[in-house]
Amino acid sequence: MTRAHGSVTCSTYNIARSSALWAALKEVAVRPEVNVRPYLDTDVADAKPKPWRPATAQVARELKGAVVMRTWAGEDGKRPRNHAKFVVVDRQIVVVTSMNVSRSAEEQNVELGLRLDEPLLARAIEDQMRALEPHVYEQVAGG
């Protein structure tokens, strides 16, 4: 992912600073030629922020240059769960996984993931997430 030259789109239920993916996101987000767009679950990130698990506003501040999206409550007051876990790199490579973005998930858990070099699927996933934005997500200020 750190070799991305155009874009990185990812989605996760939770994110931890201990994660290798977090470090990679921070590295690519500062490069102006790379569009970084993480999707996060508000209830998990903002309900009880921990020093190792940043709130969505902290993610936006720390991923300088990224467009950070979080779930928002609709007219019914209910917020959907963002439980999708994937990374799309350069609209080409797709990684779909059961893993949350944390060191324990990366090093201790039994997880399953699939990496595909599939541009049509990559574009379809990104397009679907963008289509959901007006209904499910809001941009987090501070990025």
Tally the beta strands: 7
CATH class: Alpha Beta
Number of domains: 1
Using only C-alpha atoms, the radius of gyration works out to 14 Å
Percent helix, as a range, is 25-40%
In round numbers, the mean pLDDT is 92
CATH 2nd-level architecture: 2-Layer Sandwich
**Shape field:** globular
Indicate the low-confidence ranges by residue numbers: none
Largest sheet, described in full? 7 strands, mixed
Strand fraction equals: 15-25%
Distance between the amino and carboxyl termini:
20 Å
Number of separate helices: 5
Q: Structural class, from helix and strand content?
A: alpha/beta
H/E series: EHEHHEEEHEHE
> Strand arrangement, largest sheet?
6-5-4-1-2-3-7
CATH topology: Endonuclease, Chain A
CATH superfamily: Endonuclease Chain A
